[in-house]
Design brief:
The protein is α+β, with helices and mostly antiparallel strands and 180 residues long. The chain has one domain: Alpha-Beta Plaits (2-Layer Sandwich). 43% of the residues lie in helices and 16% in strands. The chain contains 6 helices and 4 strands.
């Protein structure tokens, strides 16, 4: 049976990528930095807006606003370039990602902030930390002002949902995410 066609229309997407089998997608912080560098390059090349990212040990989450027809091409480039670097660095061959990336359309702002909270809390649910503010491989810390926000991340749409000035929006966002 053929695969269902990808949703290629412009819009917001929750993107997930998993390591091959139960393996490790990131062996160390250098691997994570390599992925973030490739992500920054891909965001610029395809004129995406990256609203957030969260890098776990064996998978990653992205929230992307992608233009018409760009998500598949961009994700193919991102995953291929990262896989090549990963394999070269670790002396491996073959697949790094388990199948195609997952890309679910986000239909409205309520779904956006729920997805954002889910991604931010993923390290907490996995037992990697006690609070999403502790996980350094997520854009959440930068979004709420507790760390540097990567230059390719723009959480403005998420913050707008919570209204008020930036401080008020951040306070409301933290209550929503950390109270989840």
């Amino acid at each position: 049976m053929p695969r269902a066609p990808r949703d290629t229309a412009a819009g917001l997407f929750h993107v997930t990528c998993h390591s091959v089998w139960a393996g490790t997608l990131f062996e160390d912080d250098l691997d994570r930095m390599e992925l973030l560098l490739e992500l920054a390059s891909t965001v610029a090349r395809f004129a995406w807006t990256c609203l957030s990212y969260c890098l776990m040990t064996n998978h990653l989450h992205l929230i992307l606003d992608a233009g018409d027809g760009t998500l598949s091409e961009g994700m193919q480039l991102l995953n291929t370039r990262y896989a090549c670097r990963f394999n070269q660095r670790h002396g491996l061959r073959g697949h790094v990602f388990a199948g195609r990336y997952g890309g679910k359309r986000i239909h409205d702002d309520a779904q956006l902030v729920a997805t954002f909270a889910y991604d931010a809390n993923n390290p907490v649910e996995a037992g990697a930390c006690e609070s999403p503010t502790e996980w350094e491989w997520s854009s959440y810390r930068g979004t709420v002002g507790l760390g540097e926000l990567a230059s390719f991340v723009d959480p403005a749409r998420v913050l707008r949902y919570f209204g008020g000035n930036r401080d008020t929006a951040v306070r409301r966002l933290r209550a929503y995410v950390e109270g989840s």
